[in-house]
Every structure is written in C-alpha cells, then in structure tokens.
Specification:
Distance between the termini of chain A: 28 Å
Number of strands of chain A: 8
Number of domains of chain A: 1
Helix content of chain A: 40-55%
Order of helices and strands of chain A: EHHEHEHEHHEHEHEHEHHH
CATH class of chain A: Alpha Beta
Structural class of chain A: alpha/beta
Largest interface: A-B, 52 and 52 residues
Strand order of the largest sheet of chain A: 1-2-3-4-5-6-7-8
Oligomer: homodimer
CATH architecture of chain A: Alpha-Beta Barrel
Number of helices of chain A: 12
Chain lengths: 318, 318
C-alpha cells in the first residue's frame, strides 16, 4: 500500500468497465467531475479511461483529455486500460501512473475479446513492459503496469477454469515484470470457496507482486467473494460506483461489485479505505443525472447508514 | 442435522418473515402451493406461519389450515412462530414440529415489538418450554423449540449491540431448554467481522445447542455474512424466496437474504443443501403471480446458472 493511512485499496473502475457498456457518450466534463468527486471523497485510485481505438469504443474517444485532467488531482493514482502497445504508447506519452493490460485465462474468451492466442497476449505485454522501461530509462517517471487475468474464475464459453491455468498465466505475468496482477471474475461465476482456492494458489505463485481482486456481482456473490479474498490477504479491490456496468443487450449481465457497498462493508469491518461514505454516496448523483436509464444498484444508498454508525477506525470495539 | 444427506440446512422463512409485511392476503391455497413446491424442490424445513392473534396480523388468520397442510408433506420440518404461550398452545395442539419463539437483545426493540422487558420474554419462554414438556409427557410427540434473538447484531433504535449481551441472552435461552438458537440481524446492520465475533462467542457460550443465522440483506452484506458464519461452523441459515420482505411503508427496508442466491452460493461451494436450484427458481412464479407489485430480488434468477454448472456434490474439483 502507499503512504496513505489505509488498510484496503478500493479502486474505482466504473469509468472504464462500467462506461464501456454505455452506448450514449458520457460528456468529458462529467467524467472529470465524477473522478474529482470520488477523489475528493477519498478514493485513492481510479481507472479513468481506456486507450482503445475510438472507432471501436467511441465512449473513450476523450481518453487523453480525461487522463490529463485526472493527473492534475493530487494524491490520485490514475490508471487507464491499454489493449496493446499502441494504447500503451498513448498512455506513456501522457504520463499516466498505471497501465492496465488485460488478457483472458480462457483461450476462447481471449480469442473473442482481443482476437489472439494467450501466448500472443503475453508477447504484447512484454513489448509494453519494454516500452515502459525505455520511457523510464529516457528520464520519464516509471509508469506502473498492472495486468488483469480475465475469466480467471469462470468463462461463459468454457465454463469452469482450472486454477492451475490461472497460476500459470499469473506466473507468466510476474515473470514479464508487471507491478500488479488483477484476478478477475469477469462473468460473475465465482463462489467464496473457489476464490480462496484460486487466490491462495496465485499468491503463492507470484511472490511479492501485489494481487488485486476484480469481482462482478452477477450472481449475488460479489461481497461474499471479497470476504474470501480478504481471508487470503488480498487488500486491493476493483469496484464501480452504483455497480455501473452490464450490457443493455445481454439480459442478466451486471456490473462490478458496488463501490459504495464495498466501502461500507470494509469500513464496518474496521478496515480503513480512506473513503468518506456519505461523500461517496453523493457522487451517485452525477451518474443518475447523466444516465437516467441506467440501473443504479446499491444497498447502502437505499437503506442508509446504521443508527449511530461510526466510521473506521474511530468505531469503539464492542 | 437430520438424517438427510446435506451439509447445510436452509430454512425458508418467507411465508412468515416475508408475508408479515404484505398487506394483501396471500390465499391459503397459494401458501400451501408455495410450501409444497419448495418441499418438492428439496427444502427440508419451512417456517410456514405465525400463531399471532389474527386481528394483529390478518395475513396469518389461516395459520391452522396452513400448518395442517404442511404437516402432510413427508420429510418436511414444519415451523411456526409463536409470540407467547397462547400461540404455543395453538401450535402444540396441531402437532407442529418446531415452535419459533422470538425476543430481542435490544431492550428498546423488545419493548416496541412485544411490549415487555427482556426478562419477561424469558419467563414467557420458560412457560412455553413447560407447556411443551407437559404435552410430550402426556404422550404427544416432543415439539422442538427454537428461540430467536432479534436485533442481535444491531438495532435501529439502539445502534450497536454488545456481543456480551447477545451471549447473555443466548445462555439464558440454552438454560431454558431450547433446541435451537437463531441469532438474527433483524435490520441488516451486520458485517462479516462482527458476525465472526458474535457467532464465535455465542457458540462457545451455548455448548451443543445448534445455532442458526438469520440475516437480512438490507445493506448488501447478507451473503458475505453467511460466509463469515460458515467459517464459525454455523450450518443452518434462514432465507426467503426472492428475498421477499421489507415494508412498503418503510423505504429502504428489505427482506431476508435471497433463498435462491443462498442455495446457489452454498451449492457452488460444494456444500450440499438438498435443494434443486432449477426447481427452486421455478417456485418464484407463485410469488410473482400472487404479488405482482412485490419486489422480486435474486441475482441467480436474473443471470441464470453458469455455463456447464454442475450441482454439488457431483462437481469435479478443479
């Protein structure tokens, strides 16, 4: 963890994982307002955009402007997704703090998602690491590279994924020189028992490379899986405000775990996230205004804080 | 656990905890259809009604008819709530298998809910146990008595509840001779850390009296709390189909954890519940037809089973 006085890092990924599913363009100034408001609420790290070709996902045509604005916010780690070396070069040129490179453990999903074999994805990653190292050697700041393993806990095409495969690719990512590995339950298949098994195995495999968990709440097990990952020692979690995500053309698809509910659960457990729950809840208004048709999920937003609730770590142990 | 080949007992409480919040009368034949369909799906125990005065909650005016019909179903344990000795006598006269007596750990909530001090509630319970023992001695079957501790993990009036108080009342229930203790998060305040602390303490306090967990999903932590309770060794959980519950006049109130999602999570973890997930999901149709305005919750119902899903224990370990 960084110098900040927190126990768990919660990372907002709604601007990327959530908005990539939203057809209507979310105005650049409103994206920036969302980022600023969450940072002001205490969120330390945000995946703000994706350096994909704008013609593929027009939502991210403003990636440069959004990243540049986010980089002005003190204390915020700015992450952006890069699908390939070209995307990484765009990110490195801007001085983004962290690149998010994604490949799938499921061969079928990787072929459908990025149209290449998994070994080709690893080769892409190595080129990105080399580009990063060259940029750093040329005197720039050293950009971090986080690599995500999609469909690590199940795949809509292939079904169950062997934990051994997850470990093999996690080891390859570590070997390639990444600064962080995200193990992702892309389609919401995971249960707490599988989470414990997979994360323990991955953590044992990758040594001191930090491992983050990226869960979707598609089948209701999202926060239960967080508890299981916490038990393994995981202290970095992706989430999206109001659980933004899911595809309007895929009934049943849902987004990431709900950022606000995640922060509430962690805070209730006495784990400091640095996030002010009331200020975080207030940020939902930006989404509600901009995406009136979107499903805004979140139990805390609906029920409110418990009577006499004291945020961590000021709470008095019972 | 009974002779049935299961690892975890899931108990349907929607006919009591859910329907008590529903103003419109749910027809007796439809209540019985719901019970029969869930029993046919493999649910071993159902809280089918409440022996409260019908003028207080008209929804339960048909308690006798519902209990009598449920008692005809082979292999099903039939439970009914009893608020006092008069209610217990109604249940004992019918030969219900299990009485559910409830008191609150929060003094304020107990006063509001049953209009008496907690010590008076304990005295009520002792009279009910004596009535049960007398009925059994007179040659009837021995009815089990389960006692619930409401607001054990938080109270809307009092806020946080001391774990020491929960243990004190749990010990008093065990001392009174109950066959099971339910620790209830009535208002959905619990987090997994509190659940572990409270359940470990209660289990240590009550010896070999089985302890069940009764969670509400008001703030999104329901299934996460189940994981925490499983870790403590709890193997009995209350839930309601589609999460039925909550009060239409209390914004933000929500029902019990969702029975279908609970069964899916447990099954995914390799814990046998005896419940056929597809048949259970089909029972939701009875609720949807009868309560068109009710909020039907449930992630599994929305997303469907994962590709290639194999129910426990046939699933092949990865």
């Amino acid at each position: 963890m960084n110098a900040a006085n927190i126990d768990v890092l919660v990372r907002e990924v709604g601007l990327r994982d959530g908005l990539q599913m939203v057809a209507e363009f979310f105005p650049t100034d409103q994206k920036i307002a969302w980022i600023r408001a969450e940072a002001a609420a205490g969120v330390r790290e945000i995946e703000v955009s994706s350096f994909v070709p704008p013609k593929l996902i027009p939502q991210f045509a403003d990636a440069e402007a959004v990243v540049e604005a986010a980089l002005q916010i003190g204390g915020l780690t700015v992450m952006a997704l890069v699908p390939n070396l070209r995307g990484a070069e765009r990110g490195l040129a801007l001085g983004v703090h962290k690149l998010d490179f994604v490949m799938s453990v499921s061969r079928t999903h990787n072929l459908k998602n990025v149209r290449r074999e998994r070994e080709e994805s690893l080769a892409d990653l190595r080129r990105i690491v080399a580009a990063r190292d060259a940029a750093a050697a040329a005197g720039g700041t050293r950009t971090q590279i986080a690599a995500g393993l999609s469909t690590a806990l199940g795949c809509s095409y292939e079904g169950a994924i062997a934990v051994g495969d997850v470990c093999r690719y996690a080891a390859a990512l570590a070997e390639a020189g990444v600064d962080e590995i995200m193990v992702a339950d892309t389609v919401g298949y995971a249960d707490p028992a599988l989470v414990r098994k997979a994360f323990r195995a991955v953590l044992a495999e990758v040594g001191d490379v930090p491992v983050a968990a990226h869960f979707h709440d598609t089948r209701g097990t999202g926060l239960a899986n967080v508890v299981a990952a916490l038990d393994c020692g995981v202290r970095r979690f992706d989430a999206s405000l109001a659980g933004l995500g899911g595809c309007p053309f895929a009934p049943g698809a849902t987004g990431n775990i709900v950022m606000d509910d995640l922060c509430f659960m962690l805070d209730s457990m006495g784990l400091r996230t640095g996030v002010d729950l009331s200020r975080l809840l207030a940020v939902r208004e930006i989404l509600a205004r901009q995406l009136p048709a979107a499903e805004m999920r979140g139990a805390l937003a609906r029920a409110g804080l418990p009577t006499g609730y004291q945020p961590a770590p000021q709470r008095v142990p019972a």
